[in-house]
Amino acid sequence: MNEIDLAFTPALELAQLIRRREVSPLDLVEIYLERIERLNPQLGSYFTVTADLAVADAKAKTELLTTTSELPPFFGVPISIKDLNALAGVTCTYGNPALVNNIANYDDGVVTRIKQAGFTILGKTATSELGSFPYSEPAGFPPARNPWNLEYTPGGSSGGAASSVAAGLSAIAQGSDGGGSIRGPAACCGVVGIKPARGRVTKAPVGDRLGGIAVNGPIARTVADAAAMLDVISGYFTGDPYWLPDPEPSFLAATQQKTDNLKIAFSTSIPPLGTADANCQQGVLQTIKLLAQFGHQIEEKCPDFSGLVEPFQIVWQSGIAAAGLPAEALQPVNRWLLARTSSVAEYLQAVAKMQIVSRQIIAFFDTFDVLVLPVYLHSPIRVGEWANLSPEETFENIINWVAPCPVANATGLPAIAIPVGFDNNGLPISVQLMGKPAAESTLISLAAQLEAANPWIQNRPAFAL
């Protein structure tokens, strides 16, 4: 297998190659670091490359291969960490140039789990400032670009994570999702992204200050890779305010289970915010056609999301103030959002209202097992496309683009984004599957069925070859 093929090999297969001693952890790290050095200046996937740490870790693991066969599941597989998450001894900028010298002195719980699973960390990937936007172009950093067409965004805020996987600059990636920040970039870049159910993945050691809307999760080339990574990052950490039991069987096992006779709803519009463009509609309709062929019951129906819009915005924008940065250190849209920050009473009232409306939406899943929606309402925007708009105009555009995503965050429901094709700009088209509370396994099984019927792993961006 040549170096390009190795760079695009699924993470689970790389782990098996390492176990069979057909490739070493050091071989893989060197391949990915060479690709990062050559392609990242144009792509902007990484803010920080931890080359020395990665090489040292890979050398130690390569030596360990000669003495033991007891290996964790992803031993020696390279991964990237989003630059909203703390990695001890490495800069954590949160996409803000004022924090370029902010060295983390601890690992986030999800990073601890990633290390325990045997991954080798390549670096910190690009994000929007404070994770606020569905594009990754923070001031003071090169913009992250889409490897399928460099003129377009890879999405946000996990834009660097998704582009690193799509371009073969990482085998798999960690992302986070507070309003679509895993699913959107996965859709823009043609990879798989899972937004887990609330309580599935720890927020340790920090607290949850956004009413439970944000969660860490995997971005991967295949459903199986994403499922297996979700297995290793899931679980309780001491003091977590809420948690879910480990799945039985595993999420990876769910990829081999066939789901029969599900009742599946779908919609291509999100009242009152808008209807998907022709490309995104086609992705949903194509998926529904396949699901009907699998024998599932299909009905065009969608719960009413309108009551979530206002309280979700209040909770979400409160994260800007919670970051504790002065207004002059923020980009214009975040500065504008900071000025709109609600009072403590208004925040708590918004959390309560969001929970009340969420109960009504979750009741929809008493009747349906899965809801199929577009990920975003239109194809990716160009890099810098909204740069000259006012903050108000930009914020309105964001809301109208990402409208299908925040409902999973507000309700805590699981969702998965999977690619289904390409538009006429050569950019990926994806759909999201949303499921019942804590029902990631059903979504993973269904996504694996769709992946088998419409394989996309053989697609590689020409830029990355």
Automatic annotation (TrEMBL):
<dbReference type="InterPro" id="IPR020556">
    <property type="entry name" value="Amidase_CS"/>
</dbReference>
<dbReference type="Pfam" id="PF01425">
    <property type="entry name" value="Amidase"/>
</dbReference>
<protein>
    <submittedName>
        <fullName>Amidase</fullName>
    </submittedName>
</protein>
<feature type="domain" description="Amidase">
    <location>
        <begin position="27"/>
        <end position="443"/>
    </location>
</feature>
<dbReference type="InterPro" id="IPR023631">
    <property type="entry name" value="Amidase_dom"/>
</dbReference>
<dbReference type="InterPro" id="IPR000120">
    <property type="entry name" value="Amidase"/>
</dbReference>
<comment type="similarity">
    <text>Belongs to the amidase family.</text>
</comment>
<dbReference type="InterPro" id="IPR036928">
    <property type="entry name" value="AS_sf"/>
</dbReference>
